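Board notes, transcribed. Complex of a protein with iron/sulfur cluster.
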Amino acid sequence: MKQDIIKKFTKGQIHFCGGVCFEGRSCALLFVPESGTSLLISHEYAEHLRNGEYPDELLGKMLSRGMAFLTGESQLPDHSKSIEPNFFLIDMTQFCNFSCKYCLRSPEITGKRLSKQKLDEILDYIIDTCRSNHYTHISIQPWGGEPLLEFENVMYIHQKMKDSGIQVNISLETNGSLITPEVAEKLTEANISVGISIDGPREIHDAQRLTNSGKPTFEEVTSGIACLQKAGMRNIGSISVITKDSLKELEKILDFFVKQYPDMGIKLNPMHSPGRETARKMALEPEDMPEFAGRLIKKVTDLYKKGYVVRESRTSTLLRNLLCRSDSDLCHSMGCRGGRCMVIFDQKGDVYPCEMVDYPEEKITNIADHRDLKKEIEKAAEKNLYFKEKTSEKCRDCLWRYYCRGGCTSAVMYQNGKNAEINKEGCSLNCAMYQSLIELIVDDPELAFCIMEGREYPGKRMEE
Ligand code: SF4
Ligand code: SF4
Ligand code: SF4
């Protein structure tokens, strides 16, 4: 892939902002790092722009994508700093019936659960927040430990929010072991989205995910999935932690999901938080990330070429950023929007940004004070470390800065207690993913769009 800079220029009333031009086998991608916007063009048009000319056919697209402006117009809007708390995590329990080898939860924790009374107060506070801000549609995620240990309270959230008239998308991330036919039916009826933690085929899963008494869990987890399928649940997701060991089997993991569970969403989480001391050696390091990214993209593209549809979220989200300047992902589209859009309620009713419950100094407010959440976040954003912009020199010149902006704040803070630095693993992963995805776009744009949209590839088929 060829990569060069196309300089900015002004012609008549039109100001072209310049950008980076990537050229591959099929076409070129013009990309503006400041605004994260891009345009697919022919090699011939790229040459015109290099010569300070724009073909008339391109002008409309360049104007609508913010790559060119009429003199005096302002840049594209950027609402990454807007405060719209509409994704609420609720810490239901610290208990779990599993003891996965890499879990951040300390096995010594005896566990606490959220009382019904506190849950009621939290929901009242969420409802008040929605009413005073005219939010009609929000998301709630009961959080754990294992949230289905609190199944009755999960259903209570559903009922109370339904009675409030506010539209709520309730989502759960669960180890799946407590999903019986009855639980599956109730979750399906309530339209609750479920993500199941499953690390791949039996031998890979059982090497990492064990019960508290050290027994393998694959059988229980897959029987939970079968109950959900039988109950007619759609859009079941999977969440897999990729460790140093399971990275060796990445292709096998993707084959497993695509062939055993073709309708399931796939979310691969490379383990890069230090976690427990004993788990440290399982974590991927920055040097492992280019390999993870390269093999992931190669396998996903091969599967599409063989006629499969792979619902893998990282590749599709990052492609959506590059091709559509999407703002859909709270973590990856416009930098981390934890705290501004996503907050967590702990079991005392304290409110924190994202998952920062272990950092008392990051507390935003407590529900008992009945303060306006948006205003409290505004105040916290002025003084709390969590909200400080990351100042790394590396980010200033990075091509992917619009989407990443230094990456996941909680990963950095849990790693080193500071916010100013970047998360090296996340940085290495993003750099490798974006570079390889751009290469895919300019070599085979049709395939890139199929992956982004999760639809079958109509191109030439590859043999199994
Ligand atoms: S199921 Fe989740 S909370 Fe429970 S031990 Fe495993 S990773 Fe930790
Ligand atoms: S802190 Fe990390 S997990 Fe939380 S919103 Fe930001 S990027 Fe996402
Ligand atoms: S953390 Fe890395 S990938 Fe992200 S903006 Fe900074 S330099 Fe770029």
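The chain has two domains: 2-70, 83-464. Residues 83-464 form a domain with the TIM Barrel fold (CATH 3.20.20.70).
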